[in-house]
Fold these 2 entries.
Entry 1:
Amino acid sequence: MYQSTTKSFRRALCVAAGLLPIAFSSAYAAENLGGDPSALSLRLSPAQYRQTIADIFGTNIVIDGRFEPEVREQGLLAIGARWANVSDTGMDRYDELARGIAAQVVSPKNRGTLISCKPKSETGADDACARAFISGYGRLLYRRTLSEQEVATRVKLAADATATTKDFYIGLSSVLSDMLISPNFLFRYRTVETDPTKPNEKRLDSYSKAAALSYFLWNSTPDDQLIKASEKGELQTAEGLRRQVDRMISSPAMESGIRAFFADMLHFSDFQTVAKDTTFFPRYTTKINDLAQEQTLRTIVDHVRANKDYRDLITTRSTYLTRSLAALYGVPLADTTDNGEPDRFISYTYPEGDPRAGILAQVSFIALNSHSARTSPTLRGKALRENLLCQTVPPPPGNVDFSAVENTSNQVLKTGRDRLLAHSASPACAGCHKITDPIGLALENFDAAGGFRTSENGAQIDTSGVLNSVKFKGVSDLLPLIRNDPALVSCVSRKIYAFGTGKMPPRASERGSEEWAAIEKKFGQDGYKVLNLMRQIALSDMFYAVSPVEVAAAK
Amino acid sequence: MDFRTTGFRVRAGLLAAAVVLPASGAMAAQTYGYVVSSLSTATWNDYNANCPQNINGHGLDVRRRDLIAIGLTPAEADKIVKGGDEESVPKDIAGRLIMRAMVNGKPASYYSAPEAVPNPPMIETVVGPQAFGFDLGGKATDSKFTDPDTGAKVDNQLWRAVGCSENFRFIPPSLPFTEEISWAVTIDTAPAWMLSITGEDLAKDGPVTVTFERATQHLERDANGNIMTHATYMIDPKGRSHNVLKGEIKNGFLTIATTDKFYLQSEMPFFPEIELNKAQLRFQVMPDGKLFGYWGGYTDWKRYAYMLTSRPGSGADVLGLYHALKRFADAAPDPKTGQNTQISMTFRMEAVPAFHMTLDSKVMASPAADASAVSAMMRKTPEARPKGGEEPPRLKTN
Amino acid sequence: METSILARRQVLRGMLAGSAVSVGLPILDCVLNENGNAFAATGKAIPERFATWFWGCGLGEGNWVPKAAGADYELPEQLSALKPFQKRMLLFSGSNIMLDGANNNTHTTGAMGITQGDVNKQFKASIDTIIGDHIGRGTRFRSIEVGCAGDPGATWSVREGQGRQPAEISPIKLYTRIFGPEYVDPNAGEFKPDPQVMVRHSVLSGVKDERDALNAKLGAADRAKLDNYFTSLRSLEQKLEIQLQKPDPLEACTKPAAMEGVDKGALTLATEAMARAGLFAQLLAHTLACGQTRVVNLALTQGISPLRREGESTNHHAYTHEEAIDPVLGYQVKVKWFHDQYMQALHDYLVTMDSIKEGDKSMLDRMLVFAFTDHGAPRLHSVRNYPLMFFGTANGRLKTGMHVPRPGDTTVRIGFTAQQAMGLPVSAWGEGSNRVTSPISEVLA
């Protein structure tokens, strides 16, 4: 019946069957990017930028503006950060952000607390005060002590600016905004030095180690203690490194690192283009996009900080809900807040056997991987395969005439399964469908906004299927299968490593693969505790290893 | 002047209330929870049949009549009503308009002493045959209406008094003007009312219990500005609005036969409290899962009139309404004067599915899983509407 | 003088599909030279302008192609919204993007071919930046990108090696960016350089001084990244330099009245996106007329159009896959509804550009608007038989009013023709089978 089962033809069939947008993301697919994959500098993500500014200048500094889109590579923005650059328009945006921040820092309201010295005159230059300001904040922004030349240049620029404007603080704000658009701030560079214990070898210098650590664990800039430790060389000793890593892991700032990693892994950046049709989903109010991410991140942070088994996130009955999220899910939530108080998150436990347990049943997965008014089993199956199991779903189809599979009778296919089956009868299609559909169809009890349903267009929804040769009746049977899939833990550990380094860990037989194998093994022996894994990675040699390119550049 | 806020009334899709799992901890049998999403005096605006004279007019007509009543000539009144010539308006006109009552020989505000206004206006009242309501046992058969839904002869003298007034000329889902303003503004702050229906099987006829409560929280709105379905409301433990009513499902209606007193406490300007004596209620479920129904009974007419007169600017002849309500009051005569103190009336109610919980986290009621669970009280036809058209003809202001 | 775009309330509700807007006074003939192509007093040419207008998911099926070639062809029903502009349009049909064995990464590969001449390498310079480098130097913004359905990644504009330029999705934010406090009215009598801008310009030397130290420690790949960074920094510096010079007067320039409020982010209703497109069109027209940029790129939707008809759960893109072709009509009926909306939006955009009068002609007459899409036949997601259009004459260098069939030709030749029409001294463009060395000469005047 079909003349061809070539690769592209098979892909075409898959698209006909509703394997819809694969490269569907506001982040760029980095495939065939112009950049060179050996680049190692990482552009700060919007979240890192915000957290860094908040940590340095305080949370009352408003960061108002849009960031240049991020690049997603191998499933992570953290890897795409190696490709991310600054476009013309992006430079404008960074410049706007920088000026907004700098103006607030020197504003009469904030200067008393944020600027440690007072100028002799507010209308004239004061090099000593400017120097203190530039070298103090420069050290935090560039994550290292500034060179004398870097400081001196800016002291002079501040004085010149003050001379032009007759305003000392405009002088300061202009050099601060200049530092905020500097590549030394916007990008994280790694500096390599000669290892004094092994003069023929190179190693990462202390500042670079500190920055790698703090963006990995805190998603932010090194704090004063960490910079001091690196200045004293403590990070170059096993004992000193362990002390800092333990301090950081037990710090409250750890939460922002956990959040940043999981938000990246679960593609929460895609929420910026999520809008649901309120005719069909009136309970999906405008705040749900934010609440849904927050629900999942709270669930995860709680779980991870309590040192629970990562795999249990797939089946956990514990979560947090607000009143409006509870209404969206259709579950009762005891909120004893006084009338008129704002919505708040309340801990909630699903009853035993409830199919809505686990993070995959949450709006942040279910609604994110749906269209605005209807579900997409394919998108859901693909997201689970790629984002949580690190498996690859074949790319979208080639340019093939769909008329071969076109169903001209125009029949009404009631459920998502009907629609998919109508197309997947052909053996040529089965290859694609086996990958995404069993999972996606099992999640069809969740509508496009996250609500629970048992029928669609009046027809009962069939959520049964087979995964890895095991039959399941519905999502409640499927989740334990996913929980116990070895790919789940191997995927999260690889992505956590990549979140910290911008690179996936080495595959077997590549340099460093033995150390990685040991880390993965320990992860399992420990009972898949994410914090322990992060600690191990932060203490490993491979986390700080320098590449041959860096060695060459250092010579 | 037309301030109807129909923007809030976008109809929710049928999917909205479709499915929910049975919640754990629900009470025995079946208890389905709702929260009152709309409440108002029940209107039946078959305008041509109801008010053939069409003389009550609206805001400016009323103002013109009031100006003449305090002694201005029709020409002077017209000039003021027309506006634009502020110089010609006597400075004390506002005071004179209000201080029309005479108490102990001195001018007094007609808001506080409506009884004491000489020659109060007589407004047109309803003569049409139909209105929503219940047979409350009222004796005068010639004053009964026929209920458009049930065909029964019913008592609703309040509608007779107010139904030709501008501020009641609205057809659901719009509420009477004064009530709409009050409702729309205060539901975002005032505690909500909840009700639950308990029965062995609401897909079949049989006895049921309807329980009313007040919530500790206000109504939650959805993305369209309508009332959110499936939200959870906590039951106010103070219990002043706790009503347990016995009723039955039969012939497609859930009805509550006479109950002595039905009381709900609130914090809303138009609905500070609901008090109905000899109350009867009936409910149906609409296909979208919404509960819909009427509450009837006798209420204190002065309290109702106060709710009207305390909201000036409604465009209605509030003084005329006061005296019409007094005239048609049909129950509980004052032993001394013989004047009836209560009037038969009907509220129209809508409620959407909701969870009810106690403060100690017990689930007392959950939304029905789907329409079939309450099929015995499912309404098969759209809500009854008067044939006279939705937009009644208006008087033209000179 | 200020021109009101829309009342704030209307902006917030986003319900009005903007069409014509009255903008300023026409330039009096006496201000122009005899040929009408330059201002008499300054002798400066009226600036060249280039615009791209993108919509997702193609057009068709094939029945949008007129039966006759050349002038006086009958416009098919699918394009009827463009009837008022038929005489000022060049309609290209039949051309293909050559895949040379590459995978058709749907919604990406074809549009990459059209805009970059290359189906393999993402983030090569796109046609608008190539043209912008030629005509757009010396303006405050090298280009402006907008996305009407709310995806900042919707644009196809790429500066070599930098990634796609982020699109503005909020008309209010775009207004502030262009006509906010930094805007200098080109027609203001007096000009005083802003000391704050002077300061900003001079402190950039602080960052520039860091370049050598950074370069010294980086590998080749990171050095290339850094070079790109400094190219962007140079653009910022140039932008500030321009702000420090007195701008040439532009008589057709009026500043739109302030817009405030908050826009919705992502949109899914076609009607809302069309309304936003109307606002953007007006802002872009003012931006061009006021010399703030010479290149504007509008993406009506992203390639995978998420737009829906009110009350329907299936979006445009899903319909292109799922709807059967009506055997009588020969196209997908529900999909065509979207085409009709998009073509109407294109019409409205052209009306807006046309409403700006410069001498005896309109801004539209002098500029070149290149309308393109990511696919040919939508159901097939094909990269064949692309519906592409030019509007305007590129300052008299293009003939208009023709249907130009190019069956079997590479679509890249159309972009190449656009470059030559815009006066670029280029002799070849494209890679592999998409490489072209000659334009479609019949349309060049």
Entry 2:
Amino acid sequence: MTEANTTAARGSGGDPPPPSENLLYGPQPNVAQAAGYTDVPPRMGFFTDTSVCIGCKACEVACKEWNSVPEDGLEFTGMSYDNTQGLGADTWRHVAFIEQRKPLGGQEPGVGHEGFDVFEAARSLGTSPASPGPGATAPSPQAAPAGAPAGEISPVSPDGRTELRWLMASDVCKHCTHAACLDVCPTGALFRTEFGTVVVQEDVCNGCGYCVPACPYGVIDQRKEDGRVWKCTLCYDRLGVGMEPACAKACPTDSIQFGPLEELRERAAARVAQLHAAGVTDARLYGESPEDGVGGDGAFFLLLDEPEVYGLPPDPQVTTRDLPAMWKHAAMAAVSLAALGVASFVRRPR
Amino acid sequence: MSGSDVTREGVQGARPGRDAPTGARAGRRRRRRGRGEQPMVPDAQFSSYYGKPVLNKPTWKPLDIAGYLYLGGLAGAASLLAAGAHATGRPDLARVAKLGAAGAITVSLGALVHDLGRPARFVNMLRVFKPTSPMNMGSWLLSGYAPLTMAAAAADVAGRYRLVGAGATAGAAVLGPAVATYTAVLLSDTAVPSWHEGYRELPFVFAGSGASAAAGLALASVPAAQAGPARRMAVLGAALEMGLFQLMKRRMGMLAEPFERGRPHTLLRAAEVLTAGGAALAALSGRRRERGLAVAAGVALMSGSAALRFGVFHAGVDSAEDPKYTVVPQRERLEARAG
């Protein structure tokens, strides 16, 4: 998504869908208007396609640079290439790194290259159908490599080693349609922007910390030395002038895509279909559906395994969905306590 | 060499048990702390990201927030005792209950402000009126309730402004039950599994716990002749607290586990013994009229109520720190929905 497109999307947009009555949960086609805005730009978000993430962490760096996010601990975890570990007050983008004993679709495991002379192969470039000429791109993933079992990839190589795959995924605040952090914030420091994103006003936040356990994804957290809570703003300052967020700008593989949510959803559906056709049956979208427990995420993902493998909750629910029932139970309990008080003073008949 | 290499001859230099597990194996993380009950069913298999929690755990300080849960409950129920004693002509009971409510809520306000990351901005709590935020509603509630308890206590001690004092006592009694029970919503309205899942019973547990604490305060400091209502409140409150807590745990299934392990288990077991024992002593002190018996009952009831609040608080934090309690119930929910 280029900056020119962003501006265009803000300018045009067409008729926005009317907001639904769902204030606490369920689909909400116009989240900004439901929050009280009139004349809203399209809802903006992220589509993070983890199938092309290379784990470079440029997003983490760009985010820290642009937003002046302090250092989040120079730790060496020893668990993987991931030393960032998770989202928090000082980590607004986090690249997860997972090593699995499982091949990726389209891979050709266990092929030895000892008897292969690359110079000889280079001399014969373009002279045989098996050797495409210069400028040719890699064969499409649909074409199974010669000698590979038809339709599938052997899980174990000839020498008995199990093949590995690396999953990398850049996690971020989901900017939920029904954001629990925003719902429970007692000061109004957390608010919904005209772009449908969720942002903390740092001059209002008094550090009560209620949003921290309310978030079903473990995103927002308190900065100890500062007392207030911090999280991704989807670069609200950049959006305001028609620029894309720093992480998306810095992503070298377009794993992080920024744009109007509707457009991203279409693009994501096409990408999943493409991956399925290429034999990557693991590919699935996460947080994309407006029918899910938070009414859909403003930042959603294409994953290659179950969400919990990446440290994401498999079926998050906005806690305030149950709030009316909670108030009802608390009211009944209060009445019971009052009745208990009265009963304590009533003399037993003699 | 610090790590292992995968070579054509297999894995070289691997040290068993040093591989960071992901996927299904990562979920079998077990922490054996304290003398928790042995689980009757094997641990559920689930995947996680290196066993790291999905949620960010609450940043609340246990002494401030669990302490507030306790003192708020004590104050709310004490306001009921105060109004009852005021109306039925039990001046000693009324004075203790009024002073107790005012004192407990004053300390509570201090604890709440102290827990803020930016204490100087505490007044921002009243910037908005927001029913979706239990903490905001609680702030409004306390800003009405606290001055009433103070006015009631001040009028009682001064022995003047009787009409104002009576009005404040009545007002505090109206708001008191809400102060004692809304704190359950405060905990339940989070993604913390063992707090959220108990939202039906937790307000009743807190109501009972507040009643037994207030009754305990009265028993420990009021002559037996006026403490009859406190004795009844102690028994009723303890029964409500313990009965509903058992019901809650039974209904929560796997999410009741954090209540049965480690530090929360110790605290909640102590709460059970102290509350049940305190209620029994309270009933006995009605017959035997011994001062020492009533004081023992009061101290047991108050510490039992405090232990319950700290136990519930820590159990919730534990449930947020273990990805199992986030992932497994959500997985089960997805599977149930799928068919």
